[in-house]
Design a protein that fits this description.
Order of helices and strands: EHEHHEEH
Distance between the termini: 9 Å
Strand order of the largest sheet: 2-1-3-4
Structural class: alpha/beta
Radius of gyration: 13 Å
Largest sheet: 4 strands, parallel
Length: 131
């Protein structure tokens, strides 16, 4: 079982979608969490809406601060636009997903980002299952 940490700036869009889609795809075989280097007050409403279209309710989730403890617990850290603010911990596996921030974007663009994340998550889960 692997533990994956998804990290972006505000933990209000990309990382939240990634965590939720990972949990759905991995069905308990692996665990996930998400955090932000500068967490927002709430998840972006457009993210809540497009995830709701898949039956995933993010309305009660709260952005959380990236801590060294969260990073230490992860086997894989997936970063999305946090640059130098993301911690580097020797011995951890890092992936960087270049994805647009969904904040204030049209729903069609947020859906495209969600669908891209879903594809990447499926590939990651398949890889973790095979390991």
């Amino acid at each position: 079982m692997a533990n994956v940490l998804f990290v972006c700036l505000h933990n209000a869009g990309r990382s939240q979608m990634s965590q939720a889609l990972f949990e759905l795809t991995a069905t308990g075989r692996h665990t996930a969490s998400s955090a932000g280097t500068t967490p927002a007050e709430h998840i972006h409403p457009e993210v809540v809406e497009v995830m709701g279209e898949l039956g995933i309710d993010l309305s009660e989730r709260q952005p959380q601060l990236l801590t060294s403890e969260l990073a230490e617990q992860a086997d894989v850290l997936v970063t999305m636009g946090c640059g130098d603010a993301c911690p580097y911990i020797p011995g951890k596996r890092y992936l960087d997903w270049d994805l647009p921030d969904p904040k204030d974007r049209p729903l069609a663009e947020v859906r495209a980002t969600r669908d891209e994340i879903a594809q990447r998550v499926r590939a990651l889960v398949d890889e973790l299952d095979a390991a």
